[in-house]
Amino acid sequence: MAVGQGIPEEYVAGFVRILDGVTASGRRAGRDELDERRTCGEKAAEAGYGLRSLVGAHLAATRAALGGRITPDHVMAAVEQAVDAFAEGHERAQRLAVRQEEAARREFIDDLLLGRSDLGRLSERAARFGLHLAHAHAVAVARGPEQYEDTGRAIRRVEAALTGRFGDRSVLLSTKDGLLVCVASGDEDDVLDAFATQARAASDDCGLVAIGRPHPGAGGVVTSYEEARGALDLADRLGFEGPVLRAADLLVFPVLARDRAAMADLVLSVLGPLRAGRGGPRPLLDTLTAYFDSGCVGAEAARRLNLSVRALTYRLERIHRLTGTDPGDPVQRYTLQTAVIGARLLDWPQRPL
């Protein structure tokens, strides 16, 4: 049987008994009675009933029990006690449900990004969080000046902005190793672009965002996540400033780094002679890096190095004499530039090869 607000009688019956007792005897509600109200509030929350409807049902039961009589103060005090205890139990159950949901979400995120769970089971769990792993997904990773936290202001701000713009699209936000992670459908570039914008805004435009390529299936999420993390690693090793890096634009670098032995041989063969330069290889290597990063425009490279164009030209000529490779020759430039990239990937000359 349901009472007011469509609430089953079982959630209000104990409350009515308290009212009958305090009305007849003038006593206050007992500890056991209030504990029973807390337990009943927990059960109502677990059953999915909203607190507003439950409170309304309790007030309706109060009016019915009193039957229009003038209400003594002690009766209203008992009402206040009983309803407060009921609401406390309801809120306690809600907090527990939130913690359990967050724990399940965290476990799912870890399994999803690390690929350490049965794919069939992972796909079933993904539906609970709005993801359909049979489709392609892409992962974006944001790194800020400080580590992101699950309950931090930044993730709440980004989540609110994405939800407000895209509604209930399949977007999953979380943190991993101090990074902010966004998993989205592979055909929704606008979601990942918005994530990049909001993540940087949340870090006062000081962050760096990397976006992996879309890949199908649960394993595709892992692959895209690893690509995004790899792009951040390349940014550190090669000095990319971003603010947004796309793994699709950086595919040549993993290829170059795949054969370490061959790359080390190229670096030593082509750039090894720079060790005979004044001050060692570092000044000349920095000159080549600035020259290639500026699109081989001498004036721009000189500006980046705080040199005159004449001094830059002298350094390039010195490199040509030492290595036998001309940075200004289009054919020879490719070998020299590849060796410079290899030196940055292998952290040479800081680390011996």
UniProtKB/TrEMBL annotation:
<dbReference type="InterPro" id="IPR051448">
    <property type="entry name" value="CdaR-like_regulators"/>
</dbReference>
<dbReference type="Pfam" id="PF17853">
    <property type="entry name" value="GGDEF_2"/>
</dbReference>
<feature type="domain" description="PucR C-terminal helix-turn-helix">
    <location>
        <begin position="284"/>
        <end position="340"/>
    </location>
</feature>
<dbReference type="InterPro" id="IPR041522">
    <property type="entry name" value="CdaR_GGDEF"/>
</dbReference>
<protein>
    <submittedName>
        <fullName>Helix-turn-helix domain-containing protein</fullName>
    </submittedName>
</protein>
<dbReference type="Pfam" id="PF13556">
    <property type="entry name" value="HTH_30"/>
</dbReference>
<dbReference type="InterPro" id="IPR025736">
    <property type="entry name" value="PucR_C-HTH_dom"/>
</dbReference>
<feature type="domain" description="CdaR GGDEF-like">
    <location>
        <begin position="115"/>
        <end position="234"/>
    </location>
</feature>
<comment type="similarity">
    <text>Belongs to the CdaR family.</text>
</comment>
<dbReference type="InterPro" id="IPR042070">
    <property type="entry name" value="PucR_C-HTH_sf"/>
</dbReference>
